[in-house]
Write a structure and sequence with these properties.
CATH superfamily of the largest domain: Response regulator
Shape: elongated
Helix content: 25-40%
Strand order of the largest sheet: 6-5-7-8-9-10-11
Largest sheet: 7 strands, mixed
CATH topology of the largest domain: Rossmann fold
Number of strands: 11
Number of domains: 2
Strand content: 15-25%
């Protein structure tokens, strides 16, 4: 509780000292509220002349900041594969001017497939919806365990709405299909389309974050995103006190949440196992 209050005070301080781009607001603080859906950056005015620290969310914004500077410290959150996309050299030793928090461990994709088979045992074909510009670590972890679940995988890009609709519709032409929707900004932007297509074609789907389930998705398992932003505030504080991003390891989540939409399960004709319901952090009825 004490750490949470300290993080909240720091995020409020940074928000009060906001010196961001024209037209931007500080509605999305380090506590994790999304006022700017794609990315946001924080600059305390008190460090404008001498030492600045940028805070960014989503892979594209972090990459853009690194192209602009290799000296200004960057603290990020929600970058799914920071090594794979070249943001850091390694998780333990980032080695550059950026560090932060990743929303999942590299082997996390296997957990999604396991959960999908648990809630929909008939599934033998799985479309993995992913941003093709993001590193392959999560996809690789799904591919590694797919044979043990007797599942055939297909990769679907989420670059734009037409690509998503065309690919999912084609995939759904054959029976016994399901979907895994990995974490990306594109999935966030197109979440209503993705959940609508899953419902239209009767595809059980597992998602990375809760907001996909509140939009009508079946089930999600992933990091507590708000907790990640609170923890990021601590890294901002340490860097402003003199520590270097290169020496601060990229951290995985410490809190995960399982969310189930029973209304969607009923529409798909699925009986959610009692063992899955017992593990759920939230059940939407």
């Amino acid at each position: 509780m004490r750490k949470a209050r300290a993080a909240s005070r720091l995020s409020n301080k940074l928000c009060n000292n906001w010196a961001g781009p024209t037209g931007a607001t500080c509605g999305s603080t380090i506590a994790g509220l999304w006022a700017i859906p794609v990315a946001f950056t924080y600059m305390p005015r008190s460090f404008w002349r001498s030492r600045r620290t940028w805070f960014a969310s989503a892979t594209p914004s972090v990459q853009a900041l690194q192209q602009a500077t290799r000296t200004v410290p960057i603290v990020f959150a929600q970058v799914g594969d920071p090594v794979g996309v070249g943001v850091v050299a390694s998780l333990a030793r980032p080695g550059g001017n950026a560090t932060g928090f990743t929303p999942m461990e590299y082997g996390f994709g296997a957990k999604w497939l396991e959960l999908l088979k648990e809630i929909a045992p008939r599934v033998t074909r799985v479309a993995v919806l992913r941003d093709l510009t993001i590193g392959p670590a999560l996809l690789s972890s799904i591919q590694t365990v797919a044979p043990s679940f007797n599942v055939e995988l297909s990769v679907v890009g989420v670059r734009d709405a037409s690509e998503i609709e065309r690919s999912v519709t084609a995939f759904a032409l054959s029976s016994n299909g399901g979907m895994i929707v990995t974490a990306s900004t594109s999935a966030l932007v197109h979440r209503n389309l993705i959940t609508m297509l899953a419902a239209r074609h009767g595809l059980p789907a597992v998602y990375a974050f809760r907001y996909m389930v509140t939009a009508g998705g079946l089930i999600s398992y992933g990091a507590d995103t708000i907790d990640q932003f609170r923890r990021a505030a601590g890294y901002v504080d340490r860097i402003l006190k003199g520590e270097k991003p290169a020496d601060l390891p990229v951290q995985a989540p410490v809190k995960y949440e399982l969310v189930i939409n029973l209304k969607t399960a009923k529409a798909l004709g699925l009986d959610v196992p009692a063992t899955v319901l017992a593990r759920a952090d939230e059940v939407i009825e």
